[in-house]
Amino acid sequence: MRLTEFLLGPAQAEPSAEPVNLAVALMSSEGLRPYLANWEEVAHYFLRGVQADAQSDGAPETLALLHRLLALPDVAALIERPPPAETQAPVVPMHFQRGETSLTLFTTLATLGTPRDVTLQEVRVECLFPMDDATATHFREMAVDR
Questions:
Q1: Which long-range contacts (CB under 8 A, 24 or more apart) does 82-85 make?
Q2: Rounded CA gap, 21 and 41, in Å?
Q3: Helical axes 60-70 vs 39-57, angle rounded to 10°
Q4: What distance in Å separates the CA atoms of residue 7 and residue 128, rounded to the nearest whole number?
Q5: Which three-class secondary structure state does DSSP give residue 130?
Q6: Residue 79 burial (10 A CB sphere; 0-12, 13-18, 19+)
Q7: What is the pLDDT at residue 88?
Q8: What is the mean pLDDT of the chain?
């Protein structure tokens, strides 16, 4: 939440009728996209993941999300293009830039490997981690400011 507030400003006092969807925010020019310096690389990777999920789980909600993302400007074209030049890095960095502040992060997704409840099978926990000392320092300072 602090990252999105840093990039987009404080949350609106009046919540919108529709809940915030971070997938849409990541891909939308009204959301995080303008602050993501390597948007095309991240968006291509993310969109391929949503596409794979839609094919594997067959859930109408996942397919609806895929169609919603593909309807955003410039997103459908990502499917047509080959992925940006592959690097040897083990992760895709997310490089956020706002003013003079540059933050480079990577993300991990955790799922329950052997859920005993069918509703837990789709739970995913995403964590963002700093990729450099400057980003780590920025987040430590954000944590102290509150």
A1: 83/41, 83/44, 83/45, 83/48, 84/40, 84/41, 84/44
A2: 20
A3: 150
A4: 15
A5: strand
A6: exposed
A7: 59
A8: 86
| Rg of the Cα atoms in the chain | 16
Tell the residue number behind the tokens 């915030």, with chain if given.
20
What does the alpha-carbon distance between residue 26 and residue 46 come to, in Å, rounded to a whole number?
9
The tens digit of pLDDT for each residue in 27-63 reads 999 999 999 999 998 999 899 889 988 898 888 999 9
- Looking at the chain, the whole-number percentage of residues with pLDDT higher than 70 is 90
- 3-class SS of residue 23: helix
List 107's β-bridge partners, or say none: 128
**Structure tokens, 31:** 């959301």
Tell which wins on pLDDT, 82 or 131.
131
Task: Report residue 40 as tokens.
Answer: 């095309």
Q: Which residues contact 24 (CB under 8 A, 6 or more apart)?
A: 31, 68, 69, 72
